[in-house]
Amino acid sequence: MSAPSTTTYVLRGVLPYGTDAVDVVLADGVIAAIGAPGTVEVPESAREVRAEGHVLLPGLVDLHTHLREPGREDAETVFSGTRAAAAGGFTAVHAMANTTPTQDTAGVVEQVYRLGQEAGWVDVHPVGAVTVGLGGEKLAELGAMADSAARVRVFSDDGKCVHDPVLMRRALEYVKAFDGVVAQHAQEPRLTEGAQMNEGVVSAQIGLTGWPAVAEESIIARDVLLAEHVGSRLHVCHLSTAGSVEIIRWAKGRGIDVTAEVTPHHLVLTDDLARDYDPVFKVNPPLRTAKDVEAVRAGLADGTIDIVATDHAPHPVEDKDCEWSSAAFGMTGLETALSVVQQTMVDTGRMTWADVARVLSENPARIGRITGSQGRPVAVGEPANLTLVDPAATRAIEGRTQVTASDNTPFAGMELPGRVVATFLRGRATVLDGTVVDGTAIDAKSLEGATR
Ligand SMILES: [Zn+2]
């Protein structure tokens, strides 16, 4: 656990949720005071952060991060991945279960949980596997993981779909006992055998095996009905098609307890990018069409889609810098998520900063059942888990200059709006002046460099 903060901060002229300017005092790990500029009492020892015009949000919470440890420390570690999360404005992440060994026992989830605590950059909440070894045959020890020190509430075979309807039904029934949720990676395996990219005009033209929208939509349709049948809670990972949005909208209208996420990349990138066969754009689910991008933006704006989750999927260069068909699926996202949401939803007038707080902090905390500590309002007495963003800044994205240990950002060479200038975890600055605050002066990226 991180030591209690000894530094007191005063954030000058910040805009909570993008509204009126205030000064905010952080002391003893909580928000100690909020008031009109110049009116709050500031302890003499306070460190002043000039932040006029910067937007203050509750610390971001990611429901879908791949930290790769244990097993693929050449791609990312809990340390490097959570350091990247802090750089991106996050104060909590849910660490996906497809590690080696799989996070399918109390022992492994506790290991990841402890590594997160030792690193100290963000709160790490391990996701438990639904089935043993993600094998899709036998339920993992969900109860033992829920009861462990890691207090697992989100269960997912992400990377693989729980395609057996009987297993899915049992998992949905099982997690009710501890208010858990099954987060489904919706991909009908038979319909996606050998699939490389979205099935459509582009796949036909460039000759890559297509991945039809119905392979995602059929699983989501089945699962919302299963969730309704057993009266359980379902979460749909990274939905990517217009049809999926329609199914979720229908299910919510019917009162089914389902939530859904979209990734930043599905909010902006399309399958047109596959034309040059650059595997940095190879991802699961695949990039879809402009019509799908518009549908997920509309779904996010109207609340059909509850959250934005990064699906941060780091890969070492040898797994991405090869021909398309043999490259790994996935892209990094922790350090660009907020900028992409600003660009696609805020700067276009479709969402306010309060909406951003809802989809990147409050709702993911609620779905992950961590609202005791995260996704809290920006208010006096609340834990000082906060993100400060300069919305007027722009920055050029380059993989090599990112904090994550991997370079596979699809936004390399692009300019994105917005910059995280500070992140606070219980009042302690993990990012200040736009730079991660290294307590021990360990540069994770340069350490990783030796193995790349
Ligand atoms: Zn997935």
Strand runs, count: 19
Assigned CATH superfamily of the domain at 71-367: Metal-dependent hydrolases
Q: What structural class do you assign from the helix and strand content? A: alpha/beta
- Overall geometry: globular
Percent range for β-strand residues: 15-25%
CATH C-level category of the domain at 71-367: Alpha Beta
- The chain-level mean pLDDT equals 95
How much helix is in the residues?
25-40%
Q: Do you know the CATH topology of the domain at 71-367?
A: TIM Barrel
State the low-pLDDT regions, or none.
440-452
Q: How many H/I helical runs? A: 12
Largest sheet: 9 strands, mixed
- Terminal residue distance: 30 Å
Structure ligands: zinc ion
- Rg from C-alpha positions? 21 Å
CATH architecture of the domain at 71-367: Alpha-Beta Barrel
Keywords:
12 helices; 452 residues; nine-stranded mixed β-sheet; globular; disordered C terminus; hydrolase; TIM Barrel; single chain; five-stranded parallel β-sheet; binds zinc ion; Dihydroorotase; alpha/beta; 21% strand; 27% helix
